[in-house]
Amino acid sequence: MEHAIIARAPGGPDVLDWAAIDLPAPGAGEVLVRHTAVGLNFIDTYFRSGLYPWPGDTLIPGGEAAGVVEAVGAGVAGLNPGDRVAYTTPNGACATARVLPADRLVPLPDTVSDEVAASVMLKGLTAHYLIHSSFAVNAGQTILVHAAAGGVGLLLGQWLAAKGVRAIGTAGGPDKVALALDHGYETVIDYRAGDFVQIVLDATGGKGVDCVYDSVGRDTWRGSLACLRKRGMFVSFGQSSGTLDDFRISDLASGSFSANRPVLFDYVATAEELRSRAAELFEAIAKGVLTPRIGQRFALRDTAPAHRALEGRQTTGATVLIP
Predict the structure, then answer these.
(1) pLDDT in tens, 240-280
(2) In this structure, are residues 171 and 190 in contact, taking their beta carbons and an 8 Å threshold?
(3) What would the pLDDT profile of 31-68 be if each residue is shown by its tens digit?
(4) What is the 3-state secondary structure (H, E, C) of 145-197?
(5) How far apart, in whole angstroms, are the C-alpha atoms of residue 223 and residue 215?
(6) Span of the secretion signal (predicted)?
(7) Domains of the chain: residue spans and CATH
(8) Does the predicted model carry a pTM greater than 0.85?
(9) Which residues does residue 6 pair with via DSSP β-bridges, in sequence order?
(10) Best exposed site among 211, 224, 225, 307 by fewest CB in 10 Å?
């Protein structure tokens, strides 16, 4: 019997239950994957709480996982039982096994472990599209990244540094500041200790940064705009502190700013784009450009306390759930 984390109504972590589920055999174009590791992300809490709409009456959270192919349906080519694979989808990963469309799966190279793959499919591909597509960075630019000690933030710091980009980060508390500094950031600001805006402006000689990657939202967006150079780019890709309810398009007029609100799944919509971005991500890991950091592990059945730790800002790097 398979098991999954199931929520039957939106709410806090207490709505998450460990329950038995029935899985169908894979149909045409589908694959049955037995999970070996599942990644945890803030988007999981957005769905669980009801901030994002549910796909049905009940919810199985989880947006990234790795595992082993157990069975394939008719018409599936290039994947066989025993193959190691990983994927990212909006929901459904917090289960011991799952049936998915074959074109959503990425074969894993020997250079990437299952736990690392489960920790980077959503976060690593997010970092990839942010710096290659949402705002394509160039050497010599200066970028501000909020939540620099988080899963995406630590990958961004390393990747930006490798591209010759000056990375400034914000983080909460001295331990997280030190961690981000060890992952490519030139300057990391403890937002609990003072106004990050003035520190960023001082660090850039009053010019501001070329782009802000902001996953925090309500607590930071006004400061993010104040940190931008003229005609800079504000990329809002999350809202861990709440939504940007007061944001207006006229707020961009103070510096002729541009704004972007990307969603990962629009950047990996086709199998070709998904596998191309994943290949570049895996190559960066293999070459040592990126060293993913798994900060904590929980049993899959303990997803509720893992959510509490994430929302309580008690985690660093990536969190992996082990079935």
Answers:
(1) 888 898 999 999 999 999 999 999 999 999 999 999 999 99
(2) yes
(3) 999 999 999 999 999 999 999 999 999 999 999 999 99
(4) ECCCCEHHHHHHHHHHHHCCCEEEEEECCHHHHHHHHCCCCCEEEECCCCCHH
(5) 13
(6) none
(7) 2-121+265-322 (3.90.180.10), 139-261 (3.40.50.720)
(8) yes
(9) 17
(10) 225
C-beta separation of 256 from 233 below 8 A:
no
Residues 94, 21: Cα–Cα separation, whole Å:
12
* Whole-Å CA distances, 192 to 177, 188, 195, 219: 11, 12, 8, 12
**Structure-block tokens of residue 42:** 């803030």
Kindly report the length of the chain: 323
Count H helices and E strands in the chain, helices first: 9, 15
Q: What is the pLDDT of residues 277-318, one digit of tens each?
A: 999 999 999 999 999 999 999 999 999 999 999 999 899 889
> 151-162 and 174-181 helices cross at what angle (nearest 10)?
30
Do the beta carbons of residue 308 and residue 42 sit within 8 Å?
no
